[in-house]
Amino acid sequence: MLRRLDGQLQGGYRTVSRGAGIDFTDLRAYTPSDDVRHIDWNVTARLDEPFVRQYTEDRDLTGWLVLDRSASMTPGGAGPGKADVLTDLAICLARLLSGSGNRVGAILYDNQRQQVIPPRTGRTQTLRLAHELGRPVEPGGGTTTDLAAMLRLAAGTARRRSLIFVVSDFIGEPGWEAPLARLAHRHEVIVLRVVDPAELDLPDLGLVLVEDAETGEQLLVDTSDPHLRQRLTAEVRAREATLAAAMSRAGVAAHRITTDHDLTRTLVDLARRSGRRRG
């Protein structure tokens, strides 16, 4: 899969902070879309017209992978689960970023344990990340995920302006929108929301015992009841709309990835959409 991705994602890229390098290049007239922090006040005072400084782009990129390893992300059935998709995504992204000479770090988060892997380059960093993701996750202890704490940890860890991938199902405590917006204010943030298709469309399996992966609460549900299925469908649509609106207000690029999708095609589409968005 990595070989296929390398072939389809070849080419240059621009830093997440365009024109924010340290080498001065030129001066040009100020436009309303420019950052006022780049105004050269000495030249502006002499010419009585605002001018901004331009710098050579710093092509060194620091990438961070913020990985939700909470109970709701753990495997729950046959076939690839959300944790498997998270692992594949993390390894692919680390390989692609570090393979171009960029530094990549990771934050592995759950309510019981938080681990920070400092940014490094090279194949060894990807292997370390794969090793850590291969470790079993401790039981969640019956509490829902504190997504706001996860995002605050990311903001406090990534000191330098970076490209941050948040990989999560966003099942957890409310109140994460403001920390996500603050994170996106300083960094370029891409949210990869991993979803099991069964969470979007409950299959008709008759009478089943369902369990909340976060709290352990169990409930006997008749999945063949048409009224129940209609109500669940309405609730899923409302939740999806609420999540999309919250991501938009936070100013982040959000992508939904289901566990039954081809990961290579998903990453290629993501790169193309993100490129168009930055352009």
Question: Describe the biggest sheet?
Answer: 6 strands, mixed
Number of helical runs?
Answer: 9
In terms of DSSP E residues, the strand content is 15-25%
**CATH architecture designation of the largest domain:** 3-Layer(aba) Sandwich
- The CATH topology of the largest domain corresponds to Rossmann fold
Which CATH C-level class of the largest domain is it?
A: Alpha Beta
Q: Helical content, roughly?
A: 25-40%
The geometry reads as globular
Spatial sequence of strands, sheet with the most strands: 5-4-3-6-7-10
Rg measurement, Å: 22 Å
CATH superfamily membership of the largest domain, which one? von Willebrand factor, type A domain
Report the structural category.
alpha/beta
| Average pLDDT level | 82
The count of β-strands is 10
Tally of separate domains: 2
Please give the structural blueprint.
Elements: H1 2-8, E1 24-29, H2 41-47, E2 51-55, E3 62-68, H3 82-99, E4 103-109, E5 114-120, H4 123-133, H5 147-157, E6 163-168, H6 177-186, E7 188-195, H7 197-200, E8 207-211, E9 218-222, H8 226-250, E10 253-258, H9 263-278
Parallel strand pairs: 3-4, 3-6, 6-7, 7-10
Antiparallel strand pairs: 1-2, 4-5, 8-9
Helix pairs in contact: 3-4, 5-6, 6-8
How would you characterize this protein structure?
The chain folds into 2 domains: about 25-55, no CATH class; about 60-279, Rossmann fold (3-Layer(aba) Sandwich). Helices cover about 40% and strands about 20% of the residues. The chain has 9 helices and 10 strands. It has helices at about 1-10, 40-45, 80-100, 125-135, 145-155, 175-185, 195-200, 225-250, 265-279, and strands at about 25-30, 50-55, 60-70, 105-110, 115-120, 165-170, 190-195, 205-210, 220, 255-260. The strands form 3 sheets. It has a 6-stranded mixed sheet with strand order 5-4-3-6-7-10, sandwiched between helices.
